[in-house]
Write a structure and sequence with these properties.
One of its GO terms (molecular function) is DNA binding. This protein is α+β, with helices and mostly antiparallel strands and about 650 residues long. It has 5 domains: about 130 residues, Endonuclease - Pi-scei, Chain A, domain 1 (Beta Complex), CATH 2.170.16.10; about 210 residues, Endonuclease I-creI, CATH 3.10.28.10; about 100 residues, no CATH class; about 70 residues, no CATH class; about 45 residues, no CATH class. It has 15 helices and 26 strands.
Length: about 650
Amino acid sequence: MNVHCFVGETLVSLPNGLARRIDSFSEQGLESLWSYSEDNKNICKSHSLGSQYSGNKETIKLTLIDGRELICTPEHQFRVLQNGKNIWKQAKDIGYDDKLIIGPIGTEDIKTEDEENWSLEMGKYNFNFSNELNRNKSLAFARLLGYILTDGTICNTNNRIVSRLCMGSLVDVDSILDDIQLVTGKRPASTDTKSYSTHSNTFNISLPLEFSTSLATLENITIGRKTNQVSSFPKFISDSPKSFIREFLGGLFGGDGWCPHFKSSNKNSFTTVKLSQSTSKEYGVSLHDTMQNIVDLMEQLNVESDICRTREYKKGEKDMISIELQVKSNELFRKNIGFRHCIQKILRLEVACAYENYCDQVKFQHNNMINRVNEIIDSETRSRVDNIKGGSIIELAIEKARFEQYKQIKPLNEYYSLLNSNLVSNRRKKNRSNDCNVFDYKYMMNAKTFIEMSGCNSWFEKHTYINERNHFEIPNYNLTLLKKESWLSLDVYDVGVRSYHSFFAGGVNVHNSLPSRMTIGQLVECLASKEAAISGHFVDGTPFNNYNTSEIPDVLEKLGYSRHGTETMYCGMTGKKMDAQIFIGPTYQVRLKHMVQDKVHGRSRGPRQALTRQPLEGRSRDGGLKIGRPFCLTVRMQIRG
């Protein structure tokens, strides 16, 4: 049985900006996910090879410095950066100074009750949530619609409705093309175009004509230049399922959203996500109503926001108005909505959230320490404490609290996590709060230092792109461990990954979990039976005990045999030594029921794989293998002969 597994709620990062629970992956595989290329040290796209349930196992919980938690089997391997090189380390062996490879987490794709019985007719297209394929199509359409209404155009040219999209990098192009192909069945070409107004290059995609024509049938859809007409967005959005609204807003913010950046010149912290829209001044009221509708939609997803700024300006001789919407929490936005189709914004948001969550962990450590110190001071009399070491009560209380609090957890900040007597004395003054609400950045790591430590210093430079626009890979950053602890026995799952054999669990790069074959278990049983036969005792080879297979090599070596079960053999005919190490041990012969009559089956129609459109494999799944032309000709020739 495979020992490299994660618990079911572990989120696996996908290229479309979403994340799915590992227990929701199919046995057939082919789902797109983020992987890691060892060749160029970047994150790249790959596909799953299928998943499986691996039983109930002992687990370990890892907590990173930004508070994210990962629960897996102790033997699961994580990619760690050491001295500029990537190595694999088991979860149980990861140290507090090891730098883990971090990528986008993604927004969890949560199915909601309001998806049932929802449908949308749009020209020749019908969207609903009746099955997994139709659900994915509907969510892809929602992302496209949000992006079209911001970084796209719908216009009437020569009595034909045409729509175009523009984006900044090939990663975004690939993401959008995946959605277009899922919705329309077509994958249009992209063109690299230079804008004469901004003097920058963008990739442009023209949407299929049939889709554009159907898009124009939506009520309240904006056709033509957005700044020259009343602002609105399709009426059906407000009554759509929350998952559809989530993807629509993700596409909307992916187009016109502002990602976090440094709040001030001292670069101590990050701003929160914004969305801005502009129009002619005469249509300012309608734009304000549209922005308020967006605020209301975000509230349905538990993301607070408000209209923070209205600005009038001139564009040539034309009076314009710009309205900005600001989100109150970056983490809630990332968790419940997120950006779609803009890798620049996705990566910056991930790092900003990591820093803000790191700050929350420092506050949590500070508050726990200050409360424990106060408890110790209040419970001990002055004379009793002073008699212990002759020091002050506060210093001795701090020392005791440090010993209790940081047995299994790393203190994140010397000043706020470990405390000192001056800080405790100030907190204990009358009418002072014990909680840490504002940092003094003389003692606290600011945002700039954090991104330098995480290896993504260039990500927040002005007028620069994180990702090379002509590359399909994206960079990564690093975080370290905060806490490691033994956890419960839980149901665990594994997934295989094509080509690169790794994926991102909770945003952390981990080795893929290739389903183990029965024959691997037989090799281990062969070694165990060899040791048992020599020692004269029985070994329980079932998976229902705690037998430690890692001890077998040591036992064999003590008995005078090779650690790995190999032996030196001599030819029975010549008596010469064979130039090879041969694996030998007692084993049993297993006859599996693989008969011809159990294999033969045929069908005229049935289920097919979504990606390749080929029949499923396996008789138990009503599968069938497609016979190729060469094989057909061979069979016919044999029959004729």
